[in-house]
Amino acid sequence: MFKPHVTVACVVQAESQFLVVEETIHSQPRWNQPAGHLEANETLIEAAQRELWEEAGIHAQPQALLRIHQWIAPDNTPFLRFLFVIDLPRCVTAIPQDDDIVRCLWLPAETLFASDQLRSHLVAESLRCYQRGEHLPLTFLQAFNWPF
């Protein structure tokens, strides 16, 4: 039975800088947006808030839905990735709460586009989507008959 992994990610921007989390994958540092899997009994928006807290120690509410990516990873794992926008008024101290995150960085888009440390091509694609400004209201996501 086909079951894609459902994930959420947040493009977090402040003062023309973007928040990335650094993980070690196959002994190499890799940068990603705060992101992770949808868990049982949570909405997509709640999942985005939780992942931002776990990976960066930041409490913030997504302001818009940026994109839904259907993606097949290099290992042939299928994903549905819900991408959210969080614009903050200033860069805040980001402290990982998850042991898998090495550190958090605020970087300009140009640095990220030029980096060979991105976890996947979706990191740069997410920034390009943000820069195009094609934000959708969160009302596009409805939790029907929720909670269980």
UniProtKB/TrEMBL annotation:
Keyword Hydrolase: yes
InterPro entries named in the record: Nudix_hydrolase (IPR020476), NUDIX_hydrolase-like_dom_sf (IPR015797), NUDIX_hydrolase_CS (IPR020084), NUDIX_hydrolase_dom (IPR000086)
GO molecular function list: hydrolase activity
Alphabetic keyword roster: Hydrolase, Magnesium
Cofactor(s) recorded in Swiss-Prot or TrEMBL: Mg(2+)
Regions crossing the membrane: none
Keyword set includes Nuclease: no
Domain Nudix hydrolase: residue ranges: 3-131
One Pfam entry name: NUDIX
Family from the record: Belongs to the Nudix hydrolase family.
Name of the protein: Nudix-like NDP and NTP phosphohydrolase
Organism for this UniProt entry: Candidatus Sodalis pierantonii str. SOPE
This protein's encoding gene: nudJ
